[in-house]
Predict the structure.
Amino acid sequence: MNESSPAGRRALADGREIPLLGFGTYQLRPGSATQRAVETALEAGYRHIDTATAYGNESDVGAAVRASGLGRDDVWITTKLWNSDHADPEAALRRSLDLLGFDQVDLWLMHWPTEVRLATWQTMVNLQDEGLTRSIGVSNFLTHHLTELLAVTEVAPVIDQIEMSPFLYRTRADTLATAESAGVVIEAYSPLTKGARLDNAVVAAIAGRTAHTPAQVLLRWCVQHGFVTLPRSSNPQRIAENARIFDFELTEADLAELDGLDEGFTTGWDPATQA
């Protein structure tokens, strides 16, 4: 699947369009380090920034957007509801907005499928209706989490943000199929495997054939599968490199080779263990 428009955006079920390439801020140190990295990303052409309450850097993201000189509507901002905030999601979202310095976010995600996820989802729907967030979605929901939620809601999440790379692709085939059938777009975090598989021989060979880097190959694999992708780096050269993924295409043979690399590899805690 190629990206849905030359501008590199993906249509969502609620009628909005999300930039296929986003800049992840997980594990970026709160403070000036995050602000500099986000400013660098915006200068390199990113127009989608992903943060979360748990990252502790929402205020730095907001400051970077304002310092960039870009209009608020020019930058897609995602943040997430943390597990300990399910008792009062509205207060958590308002706190995030205060830290960001914005009246609303573009996308608000439930960060993990906690035990009270169904009740929390209805609150998220209500807060979307109030205009505090333009779109709502989930994160780390696998097949059984999505199926359960879709059975009880009239408002499906527009995004499911999960770990995704060629090394996890077939392992998560059921989740991908469930999401596709419900019109839920997959957003890939840790698409570069936190560097753990950048030296894979297949990835390296394709990088050589396409005159691109292994990181660019893995990111291009994501967008050609229709996944929104969220690379993260604090290195200005790599931030710019990761943005240059719309000037080439992987062949069907390349995609098939990459699809075959699955080894069930995750870089962190696997939500398959979450009931």
In short: The chain has one domain: 9-265.
